[in-house]
């Protein structure tokens, strides 16, 4: 019996269409050799270039158009002339919040020892999963701008931390740590943020009483940032707020080879709405159209999508093939020291994938 998955494609801006094409190529190759699965794709033209033509990042009824898909595959958003707060809030955050994608999964995994700038660190030292709250916190968009353009001008940016939102992300992290038999570290800033982060720490302790088998740690975000660089082996599963998660995972990208290898999944665990999978490197308009963009992060997000579809064997196969193509070294893009094009890397990737799984 063939299981069918409908995937909505939002290639977006800059290099987005180039890297998404290689990820779709991987899914189509899997479909060819695995008769139990079928993928269909529908492309939507939304993003910053769409905004420049239409005055909006996506259609007014975009969420209605997307709600019946099994997953959303996003390339990148961002383009000269469109302010970042518009491109972020009017597409990415609107989808995350509208579809209650409250779990953001960012693997920080060293795929090859030569990729890290940290001396004497190996793959075993950098292998963590950062679970970031993805629906409220500092990105809730609550606040006020008072007395604009006057001497007494004041801006208020309010972080929103509900018991429901805080508890469910922390519980999700505890479940992941228990399931995978790993430690769990909470990152907060309770000494300075005397409401939101004190509340976060309290919920972390409360939920932890239900998981006595999970070993836990709690760090202030400044100390955690230091340890990400100096002692990344401290971390296995990490749970943190929207803003802190955004920051520490970019540190994670820096110690594992750069944003060209960084991926993220925006998950609605209950599957009431579609989840969204994306490389997190941005649109890189300076190299768009040159055929040199690194598609590995986009392919890694396909691995996350396959895991979400409960096709863990294929998800693991894709991740293993990523490691192999990096180790092989012949078909890497310029950011990784090679001279292969985006398409050449993608073609070699599916060759390796099929060799291992034919």
TrEMBL record:
Gene3D superfamilies: Isopropylmalate Dehydrogenase
PROSITE patterns for this protein: IDH_IMDH (PS00470)
Entry's EC annotation: 1.1.1.83
Cofactor entry: Mn(2+); Mg(2+)
Catalytic activity: (R)-malate + NAD(+) = pyruvate + CO2 + NADH
InterPro entries in UniProt: ICDH/IPMDH, IsoCit/isopropylmalate_DH_CS, IsoPropMal-DH-like_dom, TTC_DH
Keyword Oxidoreductase included in the entry's annotation: yes
Alphabetical list of SMART domains matching this protein: Iso_dh
Isopropylmalate dehydrogenase-like domain ranges (all copies): 6-349
Superkingdom of origin organism: Bacteria
Record key words, sorted: Manganese, Metal-binding, NAD, Oxidoreductase
Entry keyword Endoplasmic reticulum: no
Molecular function GO terms recorded: D-malate dehydrogenase (decarboxylating) (NAD+) activity; magnesium ion binding; NAD binding
Similarity remark: Belongs to the isocitrate and isopropylmalate dehydrogenases family.
Protein name: D-malate dehydrogenase (decarboxylating)
UniProt organism field: Oceanobacillus halophilus
């Amino acid at each position: 019996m063939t299981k069918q998955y409908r995937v909505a494609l939002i290639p977006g801006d800059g290099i987005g269409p180039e890297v998404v094409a290689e990820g779709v190529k991987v899914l189509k190759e899997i479909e060819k050799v695995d008769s139990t699965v079928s993928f269909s794709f529908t492309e939507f033209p939304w993003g910053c270039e769409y905004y420049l033509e239409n005055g909006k990042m996506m259609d007014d009824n975009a969420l209605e158009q997307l709600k019946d898909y099994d997953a959303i595959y996003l390339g990148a958003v961002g383009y000269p002339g469109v302010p970042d707060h518009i491109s972020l809030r009017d597409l990415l955050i609107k989808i995350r919040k509208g579809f209650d994608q409250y779990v953001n999964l960012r693997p920080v995994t060293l795929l090859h020892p030569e990729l890290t700038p940290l001396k004497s660190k190996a793959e075993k030292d950098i292998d963590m999963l950062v679970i970031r709250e993805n629906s409220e916190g500092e990105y809730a968009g609550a606040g006020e701008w008072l007395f604009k353009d006057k001497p007494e001008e004041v801006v208020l940016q309010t972080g929103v931390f509900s018991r429901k939102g805080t508890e469910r992300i922390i519980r999700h992290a505890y479940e992941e740590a228990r399931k995978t038999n790993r430690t769990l570290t909470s990152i907060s800033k309770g000494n300075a943020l005397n409401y939101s982060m004190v509340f976060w720490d309290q919920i972390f302790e409360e939920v932890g009483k239900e998981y006595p088998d999970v070993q836990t740690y709690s760090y202030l975000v400044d100390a955690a940032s230091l340890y990400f660089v100096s002692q990344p082996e401290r971390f296995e599963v990490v749970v943190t707020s929207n803003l802190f998660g955004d920051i520490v995972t970019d540190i994670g990208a820096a110690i594992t080879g750069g944003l060209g290898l960084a991926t993220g999944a925006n998950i609605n665990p209950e599957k009431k709405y579609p989840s969204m999978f994306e490389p997190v490197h941005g649109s890189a308009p300076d190299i768009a159209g040159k055929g040199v963009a690194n598609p590995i992060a986009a392919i890694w997000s396909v691995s996350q999508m396959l895991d979400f579809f409960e096709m863990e064997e294929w998800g693991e196969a894709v991740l293993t093939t990523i490691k192999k193509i990096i180790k092989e070294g012949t078909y890497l893009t310029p950011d990784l020291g090679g001279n292969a094009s985006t398409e050449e890397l993608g073609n070699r990737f599916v060759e390796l994938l099929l060799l291992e799984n034919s």
